[in-house]
Design a protein that fits this description.
The protein contains nine helices and 22 strands. α2 crosses α3 (about 110-120), α2 (about 95-105) packs parallel to α4 (about 135-150) and α3 packs across α4. The two termini are about 25 Å apart. The chain has a six-stranded mixed beta sheet with strand order 6-7-8-3-9-10, with helices on both faces. The protein has about 425 residues and is of the alpha+beta class. It folds into two domains: about 5-225, P-loop containing nucleotide triphosphate hydrolases (Rossmann fold), CATH 3.40.50; about 230-405, no CATH class. It is elongated.
Length: about 425
């Protein structure tokens, strides 16, 4: 087990494509860290540089106290589990798990002991004589994990290991990986584009975009206190709702007023320049905000008034998570609740909850995850109640800073 440290690590591919840009990150001994972000954000390239499968352009990588920039993969004391399992089809499960140890010329008795220990841990004892083609996807993945375990490495590296499994199997295998980490206590770095996977697995999650770390924090801290609009929109399902508008003083009170976005352009994509966004990256529109008088108004909650006072009459973005809409008012007297008039477009029952797709006067796609309730009709006009303690205000733009955190301690960003 070991600490893994990245210092100013950069990867530039031929043609000048900067896949990873000056990443600084420390993964503590025994920690489970998840690198998460949209396709092409640099997370897998970062993992491959740690493994030694990709040369770094600049920077330093340490595993333990040793700089491993020029150390070949086999000598880095790491074990990697890939998306496609990478099992030898002509070998049995036992031989697949034992193969790496045989290459090290380890005594046969020790190889057998390690393989059997890993097989018991992963529930593979009855499959040791089978070949990969006779296994299910979940069983193959457990064999790949077992092959990594028997090496007893300083760190495990996982590159989207569950992406080939069906939805139900992903959930159960995810739980197995978490249980395994609690038992083995091995430093683990895990790459995924699935933010739910990241939230449930990681002691800490590292959100990446365009080769840069946007935020590195615990899952709950990242969810509750996203440092910018990108993190807020990427973490959480359904994604956070964003409303363009301005801050105004009305009857002596600072309020947010919903506005209309003029000359709107979509920003995003793989290089951060204007253009179409990737399908798994939040779509962001930027432009000039015009107040038409038709938009809703929300009072700025007391704990944010001082921080936002200087933003009066400036363009600003309001963020509300779907689960912070409610069908019943909260504590109105304490100033925790405010109403937003909407019209219902679609209702999706989820059992205990339901998703309501709505539109306001100026925003045509708003989603709320609320307690399940009958009696709502498509086209109905209702007021939903917003928990003002949980709203966020952002600067305009793709990675606009979360202004609601101006009085909070600094976060790990890059």
């Amino acid at each position: 087990m070991a600490l893994v440290e990245l210092e100013n690590v950069t990867k530039v591919f031929p043609g000048g494509v900067r896949a990873v840009d000056a990443v600084d990150l420390i993964i503590q001994d025994k920690e489970f860290v998840v690198l998460v972000g949209p396709s092409g954000c640099g997370k897998s390239t970062t993992l491959r540089m740690i493994a030694g499968l990709e040369e770094i352009t600049e920077g330093i990588i340490r595993i333990g106290q040793r700089v491993v920039n020029n150390v070949p993969p086999k000598n880095r004391d790491i074990a990697m589990v890939f998306q496609n399992y990478a099992l030898y089809p002509h070998m049995t499960v036992y031989k697949n798990m034992a193969f790496g140890l045989k290459l090290r010329k380890m005594p046969r008795a020790e190889i057998h002991e390690r393989v059997m220990d890993a097989a018991r841990l992963l529930g593979l004892e009855h499959l040791l004589d089978r070949k990969p083609k006779a296994l299910s996807g979940g069983q193959r993945q457990r064999v790949a994990v077992g092959r990594a375990i028997v090496r007893e490495p300083a760190a495990f590296l996982f590159d989207e290991p569950l992406s080939n499994l069906d939805a139900k199997l992903r959930v159960t295998t995810r739980a197995e990986l978490k249980r395994l980490h609690h038992r083995l206590k091995t430093t683990t770095i895990y790459v995924t584009h699935d933010q739910e996977e990241a939230m449930t697995l990681g002691d800490r999650i590292v959100v990446m975009k365009d080769g840069k770390i946007q935020q590195a924090d615990t899952p709950l801290k990242t969810y509750n206190e996203p440092v910018n609009r990108f993190v807020a929109g990427f973490i959480g399902m359904p994604p956070m709702n964003f409303f363009d508008g301005k801050l105004r003083v009305v009857d002596g009170q600072l309020v947010f007023e919903e506005g209309k976005l003029l000359d709107a352009q979509v920003v995003g994509g793989g290089n951060g320049e204007s253009g179409p966004s990737r399908s798994d990256e939040p779509v962001v529109r930027v432009g000039r905000v015009q107040l038409t008088g038709e938009g809703f108004r929300l009072p700025v909650p007391p704990h944010l008034r001082e921080a936002l006072a200087s933003r009066r009459d400036q363009d600003i973005v309001l963020g509300i998570r779907p689960e912070h809409f409610h069908l019943r008012p909260l504590d109105v007297e304490a100033g925790y609740s405010a109403d937003v008039p909407v019209e219902i477009n679609v209702i999706e029952p989820l059992g205990n909850d339901m998703d309501i797709y709505m539109h306001t006067a100026l925003h045509d796609r708003v989603v709320g995850r609320v307690e399940a309730q009958s009696g709502f009709q498509i086209g109905a006009k209702i007021n939903v109640h917003v928990d003002l303690r949980r709203i966020h205000f952002f600067e305009p733009g793709e990675t606009g800073m979360n202004l609601s955190l101006l009085n909070e301690p600094a976060h790990a960003t890059a």
